[in-house]
Each structure stands twice: as C-alpha cells, then as structure tokens.
Amino acid sequence: MKSDKSAFPLVSMVTVNYNQSAVTCEFLDSIKKISYPNIEIFVVDNASPNDNPDIIKEKYPYIHYLKTEKNLGFAGGNNVALPYCKGKYVLFINNDTEVEPGFLEPMVELLESDKTIGMVSPKIHYFHTPNTFQFAGFTPINPITIRNFAIGFGEIDKGQYDITCETGSIFGAAMLVPYRIIEEVGMMTEVFFLYYEEHDWAEHINKAGYKIYYEGKSLVLHKEAISTVKDSPFQIFYLNRGRILYARRNSKGLNKLLSFLYMNLLAIPKTAVTYALKGRLNLSRAVCKAGCWHFTHHKNLFSLPKLKKN
User: What is the pLDDT of residue 304?
Assistant: First the structure.
C-alpha cells in the first residue's frame, strides 16, 4: 500500500462495552498506536448497569459513542453501529483485546486483493501469555455435533501459523468484513444474544459464495471473557442454547435430524448429569433450560436482519 492516507480504504472499527469501561479504555489506548491511518471508531455501550461508560467519550472525544437502552447481546450491540459506518470495511473487535501496531494492514490488503473473501480474522494470542495461541483458524463445524476446534490452541508461537489461508469459521473477537457483503447478506442475527452468532454469520456469508480467511501476519491479543463469568449459569445457558440454535439454522436434511437427536438424547443430558454429579446443580439446570428453550421457541429464528443506512 502507498503511504498517503487516501490510498488506505476507510475502516470502521466497532467495539461493544458492557460494564468494562476501564478495559475499553485500554483497548482504545492500543488503537492509538496502530500504523493504519484511515479509521473511524465506534464504541457501543450495551446498557451497562454497573459502570460509568460516559468516561469513554470524555477521554476519547474523537470516537463515535452510542448507547443502547437495553443489553442487546453481542450481535445486537455490534449491529447498532452499522447504519452509521462509512468504511469500506468494518472491523468487529472485542473491547477485551489489545492490538499490535501493524495488525490491520495485512487484513485490509488481503480483502483488497481478493473480492471473493467475505471475512477474515487475525492470529489471536492470549494477552496474559502473549506467545501462546488462542486461534490460528478453525476446523469446519461438524453439522451433527456442532463442534469445531481452534487450530493452534495452546501452542507456543514459533512461526508455524504465519500463513494466510482459508479457514472453517471466523473468530468473533476480531473479524474484518467488507461493508458491501453486510449489505448483500445481512447483519449478524440477534436471536443468539451470546455465542455462536459469528459462526452462524460466517456460514451464511460462505453460503452466499464468499470465503472465510485467517491472516497469520496480523496479531491481536485477547484477554478473553472479561464481560462474562466463566462457568456461570448465564454463560452455560447461552453456550448450549446457541449450539442447538446453530444446528436449527444451518444443518439440513438428515444432518438436521441427526443433530437434533444427538443434542437432545446425548449431549444435553450428558452435560447436565456431569454438572449434577459435580454438585453444580445451578449449571445442570442451565443446561436443561437451554435444551427446553428450543421446544417452546419457533418463530423469527431463521433470517438475518437487513442493514438500513442512516
């Protein structure tokens, strides 16, 4: 790319804050150091009940600061910003990340070079063990078990994944998407609220004829799960609910039937019993609640919301 700003396509960065203004400020401090010269930044506060999110706007007056009236979840919070974005590309990035100065150029260059690529995620390391992989691509999601695996997970980075390649799905902590594809395919569905929505979106974008890519020359550090408590009933409910919902929305024919049987006769009962035997009855109930949800919810589950510009 050339050095003058006009040669760099505008990138709209979107991040969602929920009860973590200090973490969001750390993220924005890291964005100050990037070398990519043509960006706009949107921070969406997702109705934080126990926070002072207005400090973000006070400290960073140049950002676009949006507030929701209620917690809209991961997809809903990100979608709020999209009608206001002017960028050729949109970077959806978690507020619990920090970035390397040159992280954006390789992803933009990749999308500029190949219009058949629909979205790309960078290499992800753990923030607190910064040479350890969290993500270097995904294996494809099994249409029956709805499981996949993060390539490189837990490995030490020795350059083995400094590659650019097609991958099985996207990583929601950081994903760059051409705006035209959001206009064509639709935004992330908000029915998940939390977990699996980025995989669902990647599946829809892939089915529309676009490839999903991993860019190993770009690096983001992830603090992970800052705004949710690990192994809380809240997390366990949405994780299991989202897994089944993904199958309902994306598995077809015999695979859909087999996935339904696998989830309801094996995966959900096994997980619930495992938690119960460990004395984690609150988590066992959350798993059962996630399974039961699908027997009572059938409407408005299968479309993607269309983008309407402001």
Answer: 83
Check whether 282 has a pLDDT greater than 50: yes
Distance CA 183, CA 181 (A): 5
Please enumerate in sequence order all residues whose Cβ is within 8 A of that of 191, keeping only pairs 6 or more positions apart, or say none: 245, 300, 301
CATH number of 5-222: 3.90.550.10
Give CA separation, 112 vs 204, 218, 245, in Å.
21, 15, 33
pLDDT(188) > 50: yes
The amino acid present at 11, given as its one-letter code, is: V
Burial class (CB in 10 A: 0-12, 13-18, 19+), 213: buried
Domain residue spans of the chain: 5-222, 233-296
Q: So what's the pLDDT on residue 1?
A: 36
> d(Cα 70, Cα 68) in Å, to the nearest integer?
5
CB 92 within 8 A of CB 188: no
Instruction: Report whether 41 contacts 99 (CB < 8 A).
Output: no
Tens-place pLDDT, residues 220-275:
999 975 445 578 999 999 999 999 999 999 999 999 999 999 999 999 999 999 99
- Rounded to the nearest 10 degrees, the angle between the axes of helix 233-250 and helix 197-207 is 20
| pLDDT at residue number 228 | 54
Q: Which helix (H) or strand (E) covers residue 97, if one does?
A: strand 97-99
Both structure tokens of 95: 């507020």
Q: The tokens 């096994």 sit on which residue?
A: 270
Average pLDDT, stretch 5-15? 92
* Degrees, nearest 5: CA angle 67-73-75: 95
At residue 310 the predicted structure's pLDDT band, cuts being 50, 70 and 90, is low
Under DSSP, the state recorded for 102 is T
Q: Is 233 helix (H, G, I), strand (E, B) or coil?
A: helix
Distance of CA 153 to the CA centre of its chain: 17
